[in-house]
Amino acid sequence: MRNTLICTAKEKGSYYICSGCSGCKISKINELVKKLNYKALYVLKGGRTIEKIIKEQKPKAIVGVACFSEGYQAFKILKDKNVAVQFVPLKKDGCTNTDIDMKEAEMILKYKN
Ligand code: SF4
Q: Considering only CA atoms, which of 99, 23, 34 is closest in space to residue 66?
């Protein structure tokens, strides 16, 4: 989803921290995440980074955005980790120029039980 032509996100090894340059929809997601008091937003280079973040941050819950295949892999990784998981599948997947339905993302990010 990152606009790699103008992205100013800080690279931190296996993930990026969005700087909110408004170059892609991640900026809007980042604003919403902050407003809803989520702990952090990570832009991952690959699904296996989830394990590293679980070890470092010990989250109680995660909302993931990914293609269906990566999302499925993430559910498998998180199956025994005692972490609540929600997933927003990309509406256009692939390796570049991916896209998300912002209404769906907002609905899931705002969901509380
Ligand atoms: S909004 Fe964030 S992720 Fe998107 S291009 Fe800008 S810095 Fe990169």
A: 99
- Residue 57 pLDDT exceeds 60: yes
The number of folded domains in the chain is 1
Tell me if 96 is assigned to some domain: yes
Q: Is residue 1 in some structural domain?
A: no
> pTM for this structure?
0.89
**2 CA distance to ligand 1 centroid (A)?**
6
Residue 43 is predicted with a pLDDT of: 95
15 inside domain: yes
Residue tagged 């997933």 (tokens): 87
Residue whose CA lies nearest to ligand 1 atom number 2: 18
- Distance from the CA of 8 to the center of ligand 1, in angstroms? 6
Rounded to 10 degrees, the C-alpha dihedral 70/101/93/29 comes to -60
